[in-house]
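S., here's the first fold you wanted:
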Amino acid sequence: MTENPKPTKRAARKTGRRHPLATVALLAIGLVFTGGAYTAFSASTASAETDITSQQTIDEGKKLFQANCATCHGLEAQGTGDGPSLIGVGAAAVDFQVGTGRMPMQMHGPQAEEKPVQFTEEQIKALAAFVASTAPGPAIPDPELVDGGGNAANGAELFRINCAMCHNVAGAGGALTEGKFAPALTDVSGTHIYEAMVTGPQNMPVFSDMNISPEDKRDIITYLKYVQDNRSPGGFELGALGPVSEGLFIWIFGLGAIVALTVWITAKSN
């Protein structure tokens, strides 16, 4: 009686048998995909919770506020003798003041000066959410209003009429009374420019939508972005401070050069 021959590898594969490690490999692949999907979903959810003023975000902002801001502004943002009430200032005011480093204030003075930001973006949004929950106020602007895609020519005209007397026509800033000043706008983001217009920080007046519409604010931001991206196309800008600095430059260096040349010619003639 003849023995049956041993099956070949090809015949073994046709029987449908799996390699002992196949199950382990499938489990590993499944775990990798499941973990990746969960991580992506968790990250998107966390981002959404940061952007939306949920009760959790408000509670986190309240804790941050009471730990860092209550000394001057009170535990419920009602204000104290050292700081004004923040009830009704809105999320935009917090995002501007804290997002530019003006708050917390480094020391008392004529006005709060810009310095390195003390909080993360998520913490700033949480603080803004808490203050916004105390009473209605200006909100953080939508991205399309600060994207710089408006009418730069209209924005330039509006800026000259409403802003240039303090900030200079080129946004270079200027001095005010009693040690105060209008800051330069050469490196300010569109969001912070919009927030400054609707909240009126420091000595700046408030430009509500009745004074300057959101579309016109967008045009002003577009003009300032154009100035930021096209610095001094005509040569040395001398600080962009206008005819005073230009006249002083000519008086000192131009007239000085003429006097020096006259002295040199006189010396040569003798």
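And the second, which I think is the more interesting of the pair:
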Amino acid sequence: MLLFCTVPLLWAAVTDLKKRIIPDWTWLAILLIGLVSAFLLPAPALYERIAGCLLPGLCLLFLAMKYGGVGGGDIKLTAAMGFAFGLNTLAAILLLALLPACIYAKAAKQRSVPLAVFLCVGAFSFAVVVFVFSRI
């Protein structure tokens, strides 16, 4: 699944890093890949995909409204990834993205980070972990 999302995820990361903008086509492509795979693949289940879309998306939306610092592109990209990968996988991706994002924020002395970059790092780190553990 991640293989199909590689180009839009990398594009979102690069443009978010350079311009602090996530193009709409990137999250739409990931959502479309998730929709197609929902009909073709048995896992993750549809309820897990819906939860993966709604829960993190609503949490980020709440944070954006209350504190600011979270852009609309970040919310849409996270929700699309949640639908494409499911809640459990998105939780693992977010966990793997947390440490590099905190290190970047501390080193750059910034309160906001380009979230797409760290979602991309988390997603590819997750893919590496799954690949390594599948070989054991």
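Why I say that: Residues 2-135 form one domain. Residues 46-67 form the longest helix (22 residues).

Talk tomorrow,
H.
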